[in-house]
Specification:
The protein has one domain: 2-Layer Sandwich (Beta-Lactamase). Helices cover 47% and strands 18% of the residues. It is built from five helices and four strands, in the order αααβαββαβ. A four-stranded antiparallel β-sheet has the order 1-4-3-2, with helices on both faces. Helix 2 crosses helix 3. The N and C termini lie far apart (73 Å). Bound molecules: heme C. The site of heme C (HEC) has 24 residues, from helix 3, helix 5 and strand 4.
């Protein structure tokens, strides 16, 4: 073997050796790293909302296609029924649909944080509103996410609802809010 070739092989072997050592050092570093929990109540609320909103989005589309089935609940009744079902399991969070212009009195805001949050998301549809609030002697992290008329059926149905205080909802408009509450104490 020529000296030049030998030198190339030595260089490659050295490079591989170095890469292996770096990999080992990184692994050792990883094992040394202590568990430092950085998940915050906001992350939990945002994650719950991602699931709730996706569910709602898909169900609304399916309902319009007639796939939700005859006699099935509309997307908002579905939302309330699921929320009640999860509450009955004793989970440490809750979620409700609210609006300052609600068609049902049960969906009107009940706390100051809900009122503030709904007013805020109506003006800033791209942002959620977050606050801490005390309810029944317990602290909660409360998030209010804008509930947007993402589908024409949201508007068509609501503008015709018997008790709707508003009959000119438009596509893309904030119709209310999804309120997610996460218990901060057990
Ligand atoms: C087929 C009719 C129908 C469709 C479609 C519909 N809703 Fe509703 N919505 C209702 C009814 C009925 C309620 C009251 C539900 C309850 O309290 O059980 C409601 C409740 C709500 C509320 C709570 C305030 C209120 O008016 O009571 C919001 C906010 C809302 N809907 C937004 C939407 C959005 C956004 C969409 C589309 C993704 C949508 N709705 C689609 C019928 C509908």
């Amino acid at each position: 073997m020529k000296l030049q070739n030998q030198l190339v092989y030595i260089a490659i072997a050295a490079a591989l050796g170095m890469a292996g050592w770096v990999g080992f050092a990184q692994k050792a570093e990883g094992q040394k790293k202590k568990l430092a929990i950085s998940i915050k109540p906001k992350d939990v609320a945002d994650a719950l909302h991602a699931v709730i909103a996706s569910d709602r989005e898909v169900y609304t589309r399916q309902a319009v296609l007639g796939k939700a089935g005859q006699g099935m609940a509309n997307p908002c009744e579905m939302f309330r029924l699921s929320s009640e079902a999860s509450a009955s399991k004793g989970v440490e969070f809750s979620y409700v649909l609210r609006s300052l212009k609600s068609s049902r009195s049960r969906n009107a805001p009940e706390t100051e944080v809900e009122r503030k949050g709904l007013a805020r998301v109506a003006e800033h549809p791209a942002e959620a509103y977050y606050a801490e609030e005390m309810q029944g002697g317990r602290w909660y992290f409360t998030a209010v996410y804008p509930d947007v008329a993402q589908h024409p059926s949201c508007v068509t149905c609501h503008n015709q609802l018997k008790d709707s205080p508003k009959t000119d909802f438009k596509l893309g408009e904030v119709m209310g809010g999804v309120v997610v509450r996460v218990a901060l104490e057990l």
